[in-house]
Amino acid sequence: MYLYVGNRSAVLRRLVDIGLHISGVLCPQGSWLERDALQFALPFASFGSKAQALELIKQSRFDVLVSCGCPYILPITALKEQFPNAKFVNIHPSFLPDLRGADPIRGAILYRRDSGVTCHHMDDGVDTGAIISQLPIKYFDGLDARLLYSMCFKLEPIVFEAALKRNFARCESVPRELEGGPICFSAAPTEARYRQDESAEDLVARLRAYNTPGRGLEFVVRGVCYRAFGGEVMDGTAAFDRFDQAAHGEIMAVSGGQIVVKHKGSAIRLGNINPTPRSDLAGSMVEP
Hints:
Layout: E1 2-6, H1 10-18, E2 22-28, H2 32-36, E3 44-47, H3 50-58, E4 64-68, H4 76-82, E5 87-92, H5 104-110, E6 115-121, E7 131-137, H6 145-165, H7 200-209, E8 217-221, E9 224-228, E10 230-233, E11 251-255, E12 258-263, E13 266-271
Parallel strand pairs: 1-2, 1-4, 2-3, 4-5
Antiparallel strand pairs: 5-6, 6-7, 8-9, 10-13, 11-12, 12-13
């Protein structure tokens, strides 16, 4: 008997397709899964806080709790006192032990790390339980968060089914050498802002890490906050008058919802900007 807790539907759909007995579905209020829940015709409840989620779990019956996009770290040790024979497994969109935390996909882009999907046993830590199954995704130049989210979400049901076939037995994985060691990444609100002090390449990586709907790279010009969802370091600067004399952070050109800004001696195009920048912003400064 399975209890599903999370905000994504692909793994839940795989549970249904396999024919597993699902005792209930618990999801955050306002999540995609809450909007999709009726199509599954399963016992369903939503929660708006960690306390509500825990109360719903305690009221449920299950042999396996499957977490996929649950926004809270659950107190597994305490839950096992009530459910001593149950298994608690989580589907995490990274190749653990690297990129633990709430925002592994954005972290993979920001730090140019390989990614993937892992099914692991849950404990009281942040994605620290024993690994059951996983599949990797190699980082490549140009990879962005929108694409990586899609790639990970397609792998999640595959990785879950592989774990199911193992009866959720832990795997004896070979330790990997990770430059600087494994990292944990949970994004702060300031992570999505234009940074004057970072390299052009790091700024574009930040842009690609936050190019998902509703986010974007934030920057301010003349007191107005804009969000860019696309961009790149441009190959040349000869097309821009007085580029060499321009200040760091100066806007060199504005056209069709995009700007070109001088950043650390490079020309960076920021595109798909909301709201659309006015043409008279040329010559203005991106505010620090």
